[in-house]
């Protein structure tokens, strides 16, 4: 038996978290880790207690909003937002944490990540948001893409 590296382990968990997503367009998962411990998890979907897009349909599909544009025209929160909110809700400090995410964050999530003090992002797939990448570089937050399994 070959044990996964810590990075492989946390990315496997992140991919599992993404399976809980209720978005019809993309399933995204995120986890916040510090000192080899998971602090919080998040996946994309509607706020707690509200109807999911799986049940009522996608507002963005209905209005033909292109991917990566007009993020405010969506019922759902992004996985990264939900992980940060979950940590805040439970009083868990995330400053200095590493974010594992199935997708490179958008600019809205990037701004939250910067202000939350997250120190590094490890992700599976890219996301077409040049401003997000520029802001992460300016904030000196390293980003690293994994090799998917």
Structure in words:
- The chain is of the alpha/beta class.
- The chain contains six helices and five strands.
- It has helices at residues 6-18, 53-56, 59-62, 79-89, 107-116, 130-138; strands at 29-34, 37-43, 98-103, 120-125, 143-145.
- It has a five-stranded mixed beta sheet.
- Strand 4 (120-125), helix 6 and strand 5 form a beta-alpha-beta unit.
- The radius of gyration is 15 Å and the shape is globular.
- The two termini are 17 Å apart.
- The mean pLDDT is 92.
Keywords:
alpha/beta, five-stranded mixed sheet
Task: Evaluate the radius of gyration.
Answer: 15 Å
Q: Indicate the overall shape.
A: globular
Unreliable sequence segments: none
Helix share of residues? 25-40%
Secondary-structure element pattern, one letter each: HEEHHHEHEHE
Q: Summarize the main sheet.
A: 5 strands, mixed
Content of β-strand: 15-25%
Q: Which strand order do you get reading across the main beta sheet?
A: 2-1-3-4-5
Secondary-structure content class: alpha/beta
Report, as a whole number of angstroms, the end-to-end distance: 17 Å
Q: List the total number of helices.
A: 6
Quick recap of the structure?
This protein is of the alpha/beta class and 149 residues long.
Give the topology, please:
Layout: H1 6-18, E1 29-34, E2 37-43, H2 53-56, H3 59-62, H4 79-89, E3 98-103, H5 107-116, E4 120-125, H6 130-138, E5 143-145
